[in-house]
Amino acid sequence: MFYSDKCDKELRFGDVLKGFISTTPFIKEPILKIPHNDYKIDIQLPSYCVVLSPCCSIKKNKIDKQILLSPLIQIIPSFFNNQYFIDDLTRINRTMNPEQTVARHTWEALPTEQKQKRLEKGAGYAFIELFIYEPNDYFPKYIVNRKEGNIETGYYMIDFGNTYKINCEALQEGQEETLLEAKLWQLSVKSRQELRDKITCYYGRIPEEDKALMGD
Amino acid sequence: MNYIDQDIAYGINDNDGTGSHDDQIDYRVVSYPFDRYEIKIKISKNNEFLGIEEVGINKEFMSYRQKLSVKGVHDIDEFYK
Asked: Strand pairing of A73-74 and A124-126?
């Protein structure tokens, strides 16, 4: 079960919300001289967004009236090139064997050396920055355009790289009713742990140059 | 991370005290992880094996890097463009 049967009265990590704007600042280059006004801020109202503040930080967020969110976006059409994903796109949320990460014909076409290298890595995440949300009654279905034929889907995803912070008065104590109107879905404990595991791995990767310096 | 370098504990030489006339035992204790166990080995100044001091459960049998690398990542973006 991807979603929980019932929603808590509190916000939880991974909750799907509506009604929260997203902002993205743009600058041409670092602002090193003041005054400077060559920047812009893009404001959007995504249909849905996901809470990325850890559950344990949400209480503290109530004091700050702040929360971390990431908009739900449409999935990448080429996911449907891989039969393993077509069966259940939320498989992208979990680790998988190397040969499951790409379409069968792509795997078979890989040079033996590259296959071996990938096999040696063992099970791991594909698309480490993405987390897929299952279709539900709220998410409108949309058409995914592909050369091989269009597909209608209700899957959405978040990209950890799209995380933003928002301040909202309704996040403070005593405003739960207002917030609950905005809360549409809550992840099951299992799905929430999968999200936690994947985002931890996303931030926990160690670059090769650091590995060399750390030794082992 | 080299456990041997990190976990060296020099033997406390009880014979260094004032008034001691016993032969001095100069050794160091090296902590060595073996599977889920941690074996403390006595080694002389010349790196000769002197004996096993203690065998215990290794509560930190994975290094920091190993802990973080338990779940690998496959770089496959190029196949989905």
From this structure: unpaired
pLDDT tens digits for A110-122?
A: 999 999 989 988 8
pLDDT for residue B4: 40
Closest-CA residue of A relative to B3 is A216
Are the beta carbons of B61 and B35 closer than 8 angstroms? yes
B76 CB within 8 Å of a chain A CB: yes
Give the pairing of strands A183-185 and A16-17: antiparallel
Inspect the interface and report whether the beta carbons of B74 and A101 lie closer than 8 Å. yes
**Spatial CA neighbour of A127 closest among A92, A100, A91, A95:** A92
Q: What's the whole-number mean pLDDT along residues B20-42?
A: 74
Structure tokens at B4: 């041997």
Q: Which residue of A has its CA nearest to B64?
A: A216
For residue A43, what are the β-bridge partners? A23
Mutation for testing the B interface, residue in A75, A95, A108, A148 having most B CBs under 10 Å: A95
B72 Cβ under 8 Å from any chain A Cβ: yes
- Domain residue spans of chain A: 16-205
| ipTM of predicted assembly, 2 dp | 0.75
The reply to whether A83 touches chain B by the CB within 8 Å rule is no
Contact A103, A190 (CB under 8 A): no
Q: How does pLDDT run across A1-49, given as a tens digit for each residue? A: 999 988 888 899 999 999 999 999 999 988 888 877 788 999 999 999 9
> Distance between CA atoms of A115 and B40, rounded to whole angstroms?
41
Across the interface, whether the CB atoms of A214 and B1 are under 8 A apart is answered yes
Environment class of A102 (CB within 10 Å of its CB; exposed 0-12, middle 13-18, buried 19+)? buried
Measured between CB atoms, does B80 come within 8 Å of chain A? yes
